From TrEMBL, chain A:
SUPFAM superfamilies: MOP-like, P-loop containing nucleoside triphosphate hydrolases. It comes from the Bacteria. It catalyses: ATP + H2O + polyamine-[polyamine-binding protein]Side 1 = ADP + phosphate + polyamineSide 2 + [polyamine-binding protein]Side 1. This is Spermidine/putrescine import ATP-binding protein PotA. Coiled coil: none annotated. The gene is potA. SMART domains: AAA.
Length: 397, 270, 309
């Protein structure tokens, strides 16, 4: 019944890289950092834990690494229960926030550290290969402080990967880099992950980073997993206002359920009627009940009020007046005042620009009902938005 | 006029530099005097007035009875006191920075108070204790006293260094298969080393130079500062200045060498 | 790995077994603290208590001492030695002020103006530490010697007339006067002022000076409104590190002063080591400690509130 026995099972190798968290939670005194949660990360996948600071994502990661002792629950790597193992006995390695490179050792020794601790004597070849993988072969004898941020980041990845861990944990690994470098390193990390095939668990507060890199994303808020899925699924079908706002931008309209006909749901908002597919409404929708109706800014078309007649039938429509517009190259972003929703955001592709669409113009916003989603009205509309109110709301939600 | 104005302007801009250098001169003047008078051939028992150039004292530094004996005793005490105070102080510093425990405030005060206490008070109270215990005053009582007052300074120096150390470095070591002992030896200790070295150096200087506490608790044992004190009453041999000058030169050379090594290492690595 | 060949047991659900503590060493901090703290308790704290009890004992060296709660010792000691107490505080305070006035420009110079000379000047500030302070203090006897160049210059400039009128010097002499003692104290404790000042000055971001200048502050205003307030931690710890040891010092008063410049340290020393009147010595030492702790507490509290203003 020992754990050793279970790890030596021949079929264990197949699932050896699965990370299985069962009822794992962490409390500090009366503060709950992570509410007990279950989570399985499949072997070989690139998994992201996404959330604002203080949402418990780093604590979750540290519990997998063994740097934090869970208050409840267990951590399994494959079939091995590692909950009681100290970090230095877990086949897991971490790329730390701001890297934690050993300042007194050079790059070569930093990378060789884990191998040496496991008693491997001839490390030269392995270290050289690993440094080549991260394109740092030339810098082996430099001290960490002599490297640029991007180079340090790659040393940190090399130092962890050389140990062939079952899981690589990345704690905001790109947080200290500037935007351009971050984009490059995102692709670079993705390449390395594909190349070595190790399970990556990546903690980030940057939703774009999570969506570009990860196969699956868990959005965390206030110590709970709000929603888990592929990036596209999370983006298209958010089930809470937090997810709707934290991943990209959503326009949320408070509405009242009118009728439920067939697959579609018809709601009333600010005098007009909007339709959405019943399957895309995560709230219980009884006639007369309240729901929040959401639509992404880029799904909306903008037509000048003079041309209102040209809008095809069957589309959801809302009228309003443009408050401001900003041109950002590939698109133009409008903020529209509507009775239904005070700050309606619309992103219009710059294909044919209508010069009449300027601040002050009356417009009709319309979109395909299939793109509409419905959320439970019992949550804060602002959860997950950036800005003071949003964070506070998010925390309270 | 323009010249005078620019002179006034220059002086205004560099006032702080001039004042600072004057202070530096004030600080170094006694050392210059000590050095110059190590080449003096005094007329009486006291070496306070310049008479005649001579290198006699440099040729025979141990020529005065008891001087070199007291010097070697002081070095021994300083060495042992440094060793013990550094070991004990480093342990305390790590405990204070890295762990949570009860009575933290009380222990912090216990560390702070010896530094905020006039030496004469500590010296007198320690002597009271030794007298009450009937302890034989001498080498051991001096050593005990020196470890006591050096301890706090070591704790402060090491604590500052350990506090500025990223705890993630130790976590990274643990993550990379280093057990607690390995983590301490391979990561914690090398990174804390400059702080420990600074604490040790400070302890050595404090112990070697201590007079007041030693004077109370030495009995008839004579350390180098006590030798100097005694000779100030009976007559100051030139050899005292020789020792003082040599110590100054050795200290400066030591620091310069350390800096040169550091510089070269940095340049080579760059 | 003796279990390598065993048949795989069915994966059992994680039993709520008792886990060994993950963080080793709930007791580790106590073990680390024990030797050093014990040392301080036995050789620092306990002696203080011993001393407190000695101060209320009566008896004689020959017959031994007993605790008789004889608080009159305190009264007698104070009434006899209050001039020395006052003198200690006055000398130490003067030396502290002088240290601040002399030390600040040098600390500022090292922090902001020294450039590549910074390290050298730092060494020159610290290096005298390694020459026995007694030897260096004796050197002041030469520097301030009667009829020496320093005294001659001061005489010619009639500075000694002014200081004589203030009671700091007497006649043509500097040695064996309060001025010599304060000069020696200032010299001895100057590095203790400079180092903390430098540490707090060095932490100041140079861009703050530029920002203040950009916001219409003259250099003197920059100093008053930005630099000096930010260096307050250094000023506070520097003055404490100077004032406390200076108050208890008796070396400078012995070597550079005269019988009229005796400080409280001199009294404690002679009571303890020569007169062997232990209760009086203990009482004096206790009063000194209490006085310093009271003054320091008051000072820290005041400077703490001023920091906020």
């Amino acid at each position: 019944m020992t754990t050793k026995a279970t790890t030596s099972r021949p079929d264990a190798a197949d699932r050896g890289g699965d990370v299985r968290l069962t009822g794992i939670g962490k409390t500090y005194g009366s503060f709950t950092a992570v509410h007990p949660l279950d989570l399985t990360v499949e072997q070989g996948s690139f998994f992201a834990l996404l959330g604002a600071s203080g949402c418990g994502k780093t604590t979750t990661l540290r519990m997998i690494a063994g740097l934090e002792e869970p208050s409840s629950g267990t951590v399994h790597l494959g079939d091995q229960d590692v909950t009681a193992l100290p970090p230095y006995k877990r086949p897991v390695n971490t790329v730390f926030q701001s890297y934690a490179l050993f300042p007194h050792l050079d790059v070569h020794e930093n990378v060789a550290f884990g191998l040496r601790r496991r008693g491997i004597k001839s490390v030269k070849k392995q270290v050289a290969e690993m440094l080549d993988l991260v394109q740092l072969g030339e810098q082996a004898r430099k001290k960490p402080h002599q490297l640029s941020g991007g180079q340090q980041q790659r040393v940190a990845v090399a130092r962890a990967l050389i140990n062939h861990p079952k899981v690589l944990l990345l704690d905001e690994p790109l947080g200290a880099l500037d935007l351009k470098l971050r984009r490059r390193m995102q692709l670079e990390l993705k390449r390395i992950q594909t190349e070595v095939g190790i399970t990556f668990v990546h903690v980030t507060h940057d939703q774009e980073e999570a969506m570009t890199m990860a196969d699956r994303v868990a959005v965390m808020n206030a110590g709970r997993v709000e929603q888990l899925g592929t990036p596209a699924d999370l983006y298209e079908n958010p089930r809470t206002t937090f997810v709707a706002n934290f991943l990209g931008t959503s326009n949320l309209i408070e509405a009242e359920v009118d009728t439920r006909g067939g697959d579609d749901l018809v709601v009333r908002a600010a005098g007009g009627k909007l339709a959405l597919p019943g399957a895309r409404c995560s709230a219980p929708a009884k006639a007369g009940g309240k729901v929040l109706v959401g639509i992404r800014p880029e799904k909306i078309s903008l037509t000048h009020a003079d041309d209102a007649g040209s809008v095809p039938e069957g589309r959801n429509r809302v009228t309003g007046r443009i408050r401001s517009s900003s041109f950002i190259g590939v698109s133009t972003q409008y903020v529209v005042d509507c009775p239904a929703c005070p700050e309606f955001e619309v992103y219009a592709q710059n294909i044919d620009r209508d010069p009449r669409l300027a601040p002050g113009a009356d417009v009709v916003l319309h979109w395909d009902p299939a793109h509409t989603f419905g959320l439970d009205a019992d949550q804060s509309v602002l959860a997950g938005t950036t800005g003071e109110a949003g964070i506070a709301e998010g925390g309270a939600a | 006029m323009a010249f005078a104005a620019s002179l006034v302007n220059w002086f205004k801009r560099n006032l702080v530099v001039v004042a600072g250098l004057l202070t530096l001169a004030y600080l170094l003047l006694p050392n210059v005097v000590v050095t110059v008078f190590s080449f003096n051939r005094p007329n009486g028992r006291f070496n306070y007035e310049w008479q005649q150039f001579s290198t006699d004292a440099w040729k025979d530094p141990c020529g005065v009875a008891g001087l070199c004996g007291s010097l070697s005793l002081s070095l021994q005490i300083a060495l042992w006191a440094t060793l013990c105070a550094t070991a004990l102080g480093t342990a305390i510093a790590f405990a204070l920075v890295r762990y949570r425990f009860r009575a933290r405030g009380a222990i912090n005060s216990l560390i702070f108070l010896p530094m905020a206490m006039p030496e004469v008070v500590m010296a007198a109270s320690l002597l009271t204790l030794f007298l009450n215990m009937g302890a034989q005053l001498g080498f051991w009582t001096i050593l005990i006293a020196h470890i006591m007052f050096c301890l706090s300074f070591v704790v402060t120096a090491v604590k500052a260094r350990v506090m500025s150390m990223d705890p993630r470095l130790e976590q990274a070591a643990q993550d990379l298969y280093a057990g607690p002992l390995q983590t301490f030896l391979r990561v914690t200790l090398p990174i804390a080393a400059p702080g420990i070295a600074a604490g040790a150096l400070l302890a050595f200087a404090l112990s070697f130079d201590d007079f007041i506490i030693t004077n109370f608790n030495a009995g008839s044992t004579v350390t180098f500062p006590m030798f100097v004190w005694g000779s100030a009453q009976r007559g100051t041999p030139v050899q005292i200045n020789v020792v003082g000058t040599a110590m100054f030169v050795v200290a400066v050379l030591f620091v310069l060498a350390a800096m040169a090594v550091g510089n070269r290492r940095n340049r080579r690595k760059a | 790995m003796p279990t390598l060949t065993e048949a795989p047991p069915p994966p059992s659900p994680p039993a709520p077994e008792k886990k060994p503590p993950l963080r080793r060493g709930r007791w580790t901090p106590y073990w680390l603290l024990l030797p050093g703290v014990l040392w301080l308790i036995v050789f620092f704290a306990a002696p203080m208590i011993y001393q407190a009890s000695t101060s209320v004992q009566t008896g004689s060296l020959e017959e031994g001492y007993k605790v008789t709660w004889h608080f009159a010792t305190y009264w007698d000691a104070l009434s006899e030695y209050w001039p020395q107490f006052l003198r200690s505080v006055a000398y130490a305070a003067s030396a502290t002020v002088l240290c601040l006035l002399l030390g600040y420009p040098l600390a500022y110079l090292i922090a902001f103006r020294a450039g590549r000379w910074r390290n050298l000047i730092m060494i020159l500030v610290i290096a005298p530490f390694f020459t026995s302070f007694l030897i260096r203090t004796l050197a002041w006897k030469t520097i301030l010697a009667d009829g020496g160049p320093v005294v001659d210059v001061l005489n010619t400039l009639h500075v000694l007339d002014a200081t004589g009128w203030l009671g700091w010097t007497s006649g043509d002499r500097v040695l064996a006067t309060p001025l010599a003692v304060v000069c020696g104290l200032t010299y001895n404790f100057l590095p203790f002022m400079i180092l903390p000042l430098y540490t707090s000055l060095e932490r100041i971001d140079g861009r703050l000076h530029e920002a203040a200048g950009d916001l219409y502050a003259k250099p003197s205003t920059v100093f008053r409104k930005v630099t000096f307030p930010l260096s307050m931690p250094g000023v506070v710890s520097g003055t404490l590190l100077t004032f406390i040891p200076a108050t208890g010092d008796y070396v400078n008063a012995s070597l550079l002063g005269s019988a009229d410049t005796g400080m409280i340290g001199n009294v404690i020393q002679s009571q303890f080591l020569r007169v062997l009147d232990y209760p009086t010595a203990a009482a004096l030492s206790f009063i000194l400690m209490a006085a310093i702790l009271a003054m320091v507490t008051l000072y820290i509290r005041r400077s703490g509130t001023e920091d906020l203003v």
